[in-house]
Amino acid sequence: MNAPSLASAVLDANLAIVRQGLVLSTFGNVSGVDRQAGRILIKPSGVPYDALSAEDMVECDLDGRATGNRLRPSSDIMTHAVLYAAFPAIGAVVHTHSTFATIMAQAMCPIPVFGTTHADYFHGTIPVTRPLGAHEVGDDYVANTGRVIVEAFEGIDQLSIPAVLVAGHGPFAWGRDTAEAVHNAVILEEVARMAWHALALAPGLQPISRALLDRHYLRKHGASATYGQ
Amino acid sequence: MNAPSLASAVLDANLAIVRQGLVLSTFGNVSGVDRQAGRILIKPSGVPYDALSAEDMVECDLDGRATGNRLRPSSDIMTHAVLYAAFPAIGAVVHTHSTFATIMAQAMCPIPVFGTTHADYFHGTIPVTRPLGAHEVGDDYVANTGRVIVEAFEGIDQLSIPAVLVAGHGPFAWGRDTAEAVHNAVILEEVARMAWHALALAPGLQPISRALLDRHYLRKHGASATYGQ
Amino acid sequence: MNAPSLASAVLDANLAIVRQGLVLSTFGNVSGVDRQAGRILIKPSGVPYDALSAEDMVECDLDGRATGNRLRPSSDIMTHAVLYAAFPAIGAVVHTHSTFATIMAQAMCPIPVFGTTHADYFHGTIPVTRPLGAHEVGDDYVANTGRVIVEAFEGIDQLSIPAVLVAGHGPFAWGRDTAEAVHNAVILEEVARMAWHALALAPGLQPISRALLDRHYLRKHGASATYGQ
Amino acid sequence: MNAPSLASAVLDANLAIVRQGLVLSTFGNVSGVDRQAGRILIKPSGVPYDALSAEDMVECDLDGRATGNRLRPSSDIMTHAVLYAAFPAIGAVVHTHSTFATIMAQAMCPIPVFGTTHADYFHGTIPVTRPLGAHEVGDDYVANTGRVIVEAFEGIDQLSIPAVLVAGHGPFAWGRDTAEAVHNAVILEEVARMAWHALALAPGLQPISRALLDRHYLRKHGASATYGQ
Q1: Which of C8, D134, D187, D189 is least surrounded by CB atoms within 10 angstroms?
Q2: C229 → closest Cβ in D45, D108, D131
Q3: How far apart are the C-alpha atoms of C119 and C100, rounded to whole Å?
Q4: What is the pTM of this model?
Q5: Into how many domains does chain A fold?
Q6: Considering the domain boundaries, does residue B229 fall inside one?
């Protein structure tokens, strides 16, 4: 994408997470990356959603440093930058405090695959990061949040499970572009809501079979996908 | 119904389940059958709801094969076809991932008759299918989903309990026509919501008496119904 | 009230319970009584809410028999009639299947006074009726529903606790007029929602003190009320 | 603020808590204080929200006595007055019966810091007052409600934890001005909702680390705040 269209896409995505009910107050931000141009565009820090324009999206380099001089980027920019560096296949990152995903993050409860809604989008358990140690909460706190996410994905394909719960904080989701990242954040919230209720009614509930998980996930993703037109 | 009116009814029903809040993303589809003409009309696969027109409803034969050549039918078409073949009294099928019905399906928790809201529409426990075995999740997966539903209704009249929970997946509801099927799906979601909460507060809760169940169900259904004008 | 104004009030109340989110489908009805004229006005049976006019409100005598010849009254008319006969201070009755009040009715869980929201409107525990016996569910079922409500109020002032949960069914609320009855039904639903959640988190929770209950209830009701202008 | 602008701010805040879904019926009131002029402005008692104008805000002295002669102040005025007297840094007080904050107040369950949403606004556990004794529920009841709040804040900075749960009643929140107080009441409700669900799923859940709490709280508050533009 060229710069104007990426800025528009990032703006639209930031507005979409509000419209979808994932955001309370200003607890949310979306970024997009243009890897060839070496740029990340992200929501500015603490600006009310209804005042945002595409020009307000803050341009940063791939290390998360703002390269313009007008607005400051979201305070979470360094988490986004660490994710872009570690996950080469992703083009956009969404962070929210959406209610049920945040509840699962607070309870430090990973989300097993309890149903095909989950399996259609996430090819396995959605992990929770370990809590950050006291020494990790200092100056480098926001980048360290990215690092524990990356740590939680050792051995997991970044696109096959495009979301994580940061312990005691909330969810991050991602995708190949902003629309996919937002969609994953929306589905994550519903999957978390359902998992919370299923677990509350049936503690110890087992996930669906590997065969059913593969069937649903691979129907929508990968070389042999058959869903849609 | 002639073809145009069935297409309109199927379109309206697909839009109604969105308006009623039963659908997240594109997780939902409604079909209608014209048994004399040997046709099923169903929502196309993966098309956004707000772009649908009556002409987009995909025509299939009673074996679930698309007979037109434009859009592909919902990926769940074979479940619908199996239900129409096994349940001769039904004219429409609704599939959603509505939140509480899906939660009960994930928890593999049948819905006993805890109240008269349930009894007014469903003449007994709403069953959960058995989980599909690994060998049933292959090429014939979607039809097998229909087959475990039919299996769960051995000895149960298809119209007296017009809904089922597919284990680890979500609800299917049906009726004599599309309006009735959608209505049953709406009531099912509320009945599931109430049952989840009643069970969470009072584990081991017993259903209402058979006498009260019959009183309410038969007031609205069958030869001696007295409800309405 | 003269006839036209009572019909309007009853219509407005029937529309208000829909607007307030207490009604799914047609599960709800409100009546008002004119004791001097010997008449009850009630919503007709099974007519969609958006098609109702004041003229559609069905006139019945105090025994619950329709005296006009156009529409049939709500199928719950006999419960209303029994309540008017037993509770001389009330002027209107509201029946809904509102979600949390119905859940508490299904779980047969009376609602203790857990907070001042409750105490501002209900001067004690909101009772649950006993379940109806098999012999009470026959021809006289709807009147018997009224009778078990009356039974549950032995020794309780009808206006000091203007609502009840019918076991396995749902709530009835009442008041001196239709506006008060609707308001009580709205508050009941919120009180039930809060009590469900408080009990789920803290099983065995004790009610607030009698002193606090009296303070709040008597601030809004009775000879020494001080609330409002 | 001069009188007209404080009246407008208090009106806006009273309307905002309704718009934000924190208020059922008339269970809510906001006041603001002008300490130099020795005045509190507060919502009148029992007036419907949609009929309120800025002129209706009732002027009281710092002891909570109405100084005008038109409308009576909210019945909770004395709680507000006690809080203004004890907490010199605050400029506005919000009282609601918002659902989850009230549920936690009914369950007498303080809200530990389970996540960064909480830590961004409240620098520690949100306390519950002790229940009022029978002798405290007499004539001086409303002022005593303020006194048990003040008691619960012994040793706690009033602005670092700008909210409290009154046992068996509901939440009070405050801030330096009306906008901040309303914002704190909104965040409190979401924090309470999340804490309820986290505790229900994971009884005995431990709070986040002191280091993470400090990191988030101090990022948004105090001399070294870095959030926003």
Answers
A1: D134
A2: D45
A3: 18
A4: 0.96
A5: 1
A6: no
